[in-house]
From TrEMBL:
Residues 857-938 form the PI-PLC Y-box domain. SUPFAM superfamilies: PLC-like phosphodiesterases. This is Phosphoinositide phospholipase C. GO terms for biological process: lipid catabolic process; phosphatidylinositol-mediated signaling; release of sequestered calcium ion into cytosol. The chain crosses the membrane at residues 158-176, 197-214, 281-301, 330-350, 356-377, 408-428, 448-469, 489-508. Its EC number is 3.1.4.11.
Amino acid sequence: MKLSRVTPCMLLAAGCHAAYVQFIDCSDRSNASTLIPESFHAAVVPGRHAFEWRFDVVVGQLGRNACEIDSADVVPGFAIVDYNHDLEHVSGQVVNRSCRTTDRRGSRAKFTIASTFNRSSLLDTFRTTLELTSQDHTTFSCVKAVLTPTAPKTIRLLSLWLPVTTFILACIAACWPVQQNQSTHFKNTRIARPINLLAYIQFIFFSGSFSLQYPGFFQPLVGLCSWSTLMLPAGVVEATSPYPRAGVRDGIYEHNGTVTGAPGLELLTQMTGSPVKRQSWMNTLVLSLLIFFFLYIAIFIRYRSSNDIKVSGIRFAGLRSQLKNQYWTVMRLFLSCFMLPLSAWATYQFHDGYVFGYQTSIMAMLVLILLLTSFWWSWSQDSDMGSLIVQNPDALDGLRKTPRQYHALVLFSLMVLRGSVIGGLQTYTSVQIGILLGCEVIQLISMVYWVGLPSLVSLAGILSVSRLALFSLNTGFLPGVAEHSVRMLVAYIILCGHLMVLFCIFLLPTTFNLVILVHWTSQASAPGDNKERSSSTRRLFQLFGLSLTQHQKIETSLPLDIESATKCIPSDQLDLKNLLSEMIVKRETSFFSQEKADIASKSLSEFFTDVQGESEEIISKDPAIFSDSSSTLVPTKESSFEIRPATERSLDDLAAHLLATENLAIRNESLDHDLDRPINEYFISSSHNTYLLGRQVATRSKLAGYVATLSQGCRSVEIDCWDGRDGQPIVKHGYSLTKSISFRSVITTIQEHAFVVSDSPLWLSLEVHCSPSQRDIMAGIMVEVFGPSLLTEPLEGCIQALPSPNQLRGKILLKVKFAPTKNVQHINQDLLQSLAVYGAGKRLPRQGEVDIMRNFVYSVSETSFKKHVDSKQPLGLTDTNHMIRVYPDPNRVDSSNFDPLKCWRHGVQMVALNYQTDDSHMSLNQALFHGSSGYVLKAQPEVKHIHLQVDVLLARGIQGLSTVGPVYVEIELLAPDLLSPGVRTAAVPPLEQHTCFDQNLIVSIETKYSNLTFLRWAVKTAPDVLVSSGLAKLDNLKKGYRILPLRNPSRSNIEGGQLLFRI
């Protein structure tokens, strides 16, 4: 590999005095004396009023020796049509003549001709006809050419250094130390700007590459010194060019930097060699691997330095795990920033390879497949994969993870398509430009769809519109669309447009941000500024290692200060109770003192009342706090005669009590457990396809599904009923490969376990596919087995409103939904239907067709419900006794769940989930109904600002779960209408017995659904690898020093896994 081709940095600022020439032979080849032009090279020195031209013309002669021509007999003359269409005849002078003879090509004569053209205007371009005649005016040769001098030096330097300077300033702003009072939007905007600018520079680079497809096509912008192509000088065009369709065949030969007659991408590959050869393509591959390796090492060093990992503690297994985890980070950055050129180079046409008759390379196709596979693998492994691809990620801060993923996937696909079109359709420029315009339109539509119309007036929206507008001007370069002079004008308009975008959208905001940052830095005078600045710089560098979501979470936390965070970490031999005692004394100075080992009874009582939020009645009844005998505040190793009086409790005793498993933060009963409202005013814990324990297909229906679901407090189970072959109804998942169980066994199992956990009313959601005879059998079985527990008649006094859960305690209610049938009258007279006293099943009615005289339970799939909500049509069920049950789509064959928050937001009473799948959505369901007997009273939406302060103190039980180094705790608030930015602690090394954080976090959110707000906590390792987590409804959390349980990533409880918080 020639490294001089890879790094031609010194040439970028070199002076240029080249002219761009496209010429065609207009000689009369029938004349034996005609000189055939084979090369036409031009150089120009611009003056104030004229151009001094020097042309090198290489000619040959048919059947004769061209070296026999006498230069004294050759008289050059030029007919010039300038930009203003003025015709001028200019004479020339042959200043030099040379001749060369080779065995392969024969003799060739080279004439050097000098001439002077007057300048016409700013857009200097000339259509020239050069005739070489004899003294007696006999024409020897004719050349028609288009001459375009390079752009003026000012424009060339501006087009080079404006992007370079802007990119450097944007990187400086992105890596500037973060101040705590900076908004998340401000931080994210300047973090994303270098990536946006890099994408725009690539856009200029590739759009400029189209300039060589046709004569005069954007020529002033593709000079030796122009940033848009970074091209190097190259030799003349030969008739053996591998691109005859685009170059030699149409008689157009191009010189002075236009390389071969090849179009477009040829210029872009001059840094590594033209990819028409496999050796040169290998240079490109090696360069890509070098960049990838550099990113890998840089990000790995950043990770180790930011987490303060000691070299002495490195083991091979740990190092291997760290390197493996950094792969996703590097791949995310590499693909986000370099996928466009990589896909263009990978699909570039090789002249010696054909697949299905198309000029391409099997190697290039394999590389493109490898790139796509790498992305998909990375995206599937990392939930935030591809976030950096989004060119305006700050606009997506409010989106949830899944929309952000799909938006990134759309933009990534457009990036790959752009590169493939640029590389693979070089000889089809009209199609090429059309597809690329379509890509710009799709990107703009995608942004409007995901972010909204207001995004069009943001800087990101203006950037997308500018890209579309500037690129659409390229249509002016297509054949037959405009004359050459118009093309020149369009070229300068595009150049001015690029400069305006770089200046207004990138340089000005970057400069403004730097001024603000410098001002904030100068105002910072706190003692800890230097430490915060160093920490913040490390975090800001993580833009090249973390997705936008991860970065946002880090930005909203306290400064990452490992030294400060590790001050509280004791040795493994230090008593954990002493450590917790120190944390308590530091925070509760009004109750305790480090100088006094014992705690007065009054101080202890005030502590439990004011800090722990325990009532006087509970404190007086709790033997674990004030008992003189078996109190948890008494060290268990002390003998009975050493037990101290209740008035002499120690801080260690208090710490032991707070570390006990009984001190859980999650209440077992809700604060307001009112069950006297009508039943349709409650959220009801509901199950979907309860009889299944696995997937929705190819599995076995089991009674254990009902036992497990009812034991979790579920108050609505589903039974799919079908005709049995022996005349007895069965339960199975219809139209699938699931095995069946008898209906009677299901009813018997439900009777045995219906009210073991809770005596709240139980709903049976029957989906009936049976014949009328077997429906009667079903009704008889339920009446027989359930007996008086089955509600068969409406309750007295409940005419205007539905009865309350308290009125229905110990009762089983039926919700009956029949399969579609034509005999509606027969169903209305059905015995089974008559048992559905308060649960007649029905499909969601159209607006205005709601029956307000009766009550129904409407069943609707998640997709249908989403469409109804997205159309912003009211459900029409306000002030009625109707209820809604939303169930998962049939295409969820893996028994996955949908987000119940979206349904609870709109007041859906029964959100039926697959209880057999313990995923994040099921965790929300469990958190909502925890300690509620399966019924939670709905509340009217009301805007409230929730401000939560959490002190993260200790973590236990996570040792052995983290093999990649330091861990941190992250918390966030989750509401139906908003997800708060996550906040996190500093990363600290985990110890064998416990991990100490001792840090304060503050998280806030403004929502209309405070009763549906949840706190999610997680222990993670950088970069954002989940170790353990938990979730709880905010209303169910107790204040004070409390224990939060932890679950591993597979959602199994971690033995001894606990987080000690102060809430």
